[in-house]
Amino acid sequence: MRMTKEQLLDAARKAAKYVPEATADIINELANRLDVTSVALSEALAQKGKLAADNSALKSVLSEILKPGEATLSREHRTTAVAAIETPATDAARASLRAEGVEMFAKAFREKADHATKNLWTGEAIAFEAQASMAEDFARQLREVNTGVEATSNGR
User: Fold this and answer.
1) pLDDT tens-digit map of 70-128
2) How far is CA 33 from CA 25, 40, 68, in A?
3) Per residue in 24-63, pLDDT tens?
């Protein structure tokens, strides 16, 4: 009998109690990674479906605009038609990718700030912290634009 993911995770975590600690640590880490990977895969598949719907809508609109055998549209009409096409899933995916890049930038500056703090470079630490905070704020703004949801501050 094939186990579901939940059954497999549950069985692995229960079995980890009965093996040496090093083996239990590996089993638990594998279970955690499987769980996280499964969630990420589910989110990616949901995003794929939304992007496919955007793509289908684009094809539908374009087929209406560019009907074979009819006179071509003027540049003004093409521009207006393209501007009217809404692709919320695509816009959200692009905003997320941009925000992730900015968050990576912020993380790098947080690491530099931590290093500077450990070495008692107070001025540098403050500057790196400020840059990281600005980058995090910008990443939140990127996400807000396409979700319409106001991001909450993480205290930095």
Assistant:
1) 655 566 666 666 666 777 888 888 888 889 899 999 999 999 999 989 988 888 889 99
2) 12, 10, 51
3) 999 989 999 898 888 888 888 888 888 888 888 877 777 7
Q: Which helix (H) or strand (E) holds 38?
A: helix 21-65
Q: How far apart are CA 148 and CA 83, in angstroms?
A: 20
Locate 74 and state its tokens.
Answer: 């003027």
| pLDDT for the residue numbered 69 | 59
Helices (H), 66-121: 75-84, 88-118
The DSSP output letter for 18 is G
Pair of tokens at residue 9: 């995770």
Round to whole Å and give the CA distance between 139 and 99: 5
CA 83 to chain centre: 25
The first and second tokens of residue 84, run together, are 């009217």
Q: Which residues contact 22 (CB under 8 A, 6 or more apart)?
A: none
